Amino acid sequence: MPHPIMYRDDDPGLAELRRIALRFPEAFEKISHGRPVFCVPKMFAIYGGNAKADGTMVPYPHSLLVKVDESERRALGQDSRFFYPMYLGPAGWLGLDFGAAPVDWDEVGELVDASFRLTAPVRLIRRLDGL
């Protein structure tokens, strides 16, 4: 049974996230589990997610999920805009809630860039760096 679609094309921040994510070498978008996912071919950014608090699922429909370096994870986790996403959190991912504060798109670009570098093949990272 396919997952229901859990976003709309006019959702807050989705167009800007697409602009940022699809500029990376060989990046493409697909729908996975009802959400836009940006891949190369491994996923490096996801629009929307959920967290669990006190046994209850908390939806973050307008958010960004990215893989983060372990050295940055603790600092980012102290920021109230970030959340620990269900299922992907244990694999090193964090979520940024677009509704928690005005979105700093430069920061989003840096987070997506770092996530890309943690997941993309070396040849695509070299291509990104112009090597």
TrEMBL record:
Signal peptide positions (record): none
GO MF assignments: DNA binding
Keywords noted in UniProt: DNA-binding
Tagged with keyword DNA-binding: yes
Superkingdom as given in the UniProt entry: Bacteria
UniProt xrefs under Pfam families: YjbR (PF04237)
InterPro entries: YjbR-like_sf (IPR038056), YjbR/MT2646/Rv2570-like (IPR058532)
Protein name (record): MmcQ/YjbR family DNA-binding protein
Organism: [Mycobacterium] crassicus
